[in-house]
Amino acid sequence: MQQTRSEAREVVLSVKDLTVGFGEKIVLDKLNLDIYRGEILGFVGASGAGKSVLMRTVLRLLPRRSGSIEILGADYDAVDEVQRIALDTRLGVLFQHGALFSALTVKENIQLPMREYLDLPQWLMDELAYLKIELVGLKPDAADKYPSELSGGMIKRAALARALALDPDLVFLDEPTSGLDPIGAAEFDELIAQLRDTLGLTVYMVTHDLDSLFSVCDRIAVLGQKRVLVEGTLDDMLAFDDPWVQSYFRGKRARSIPRPEPSGGHPVK
Ligand SMILES: Nc1ncnc2c1ncn2[C@@H]1O[C@H](COP(=O)(O)OP(=O)(O)OP(=O)(O)O)[C@@H](O)[C@H]1O
Question: ABC transporter domain: which residues (predicted)?
Answer without folding.
Answer: 13-250
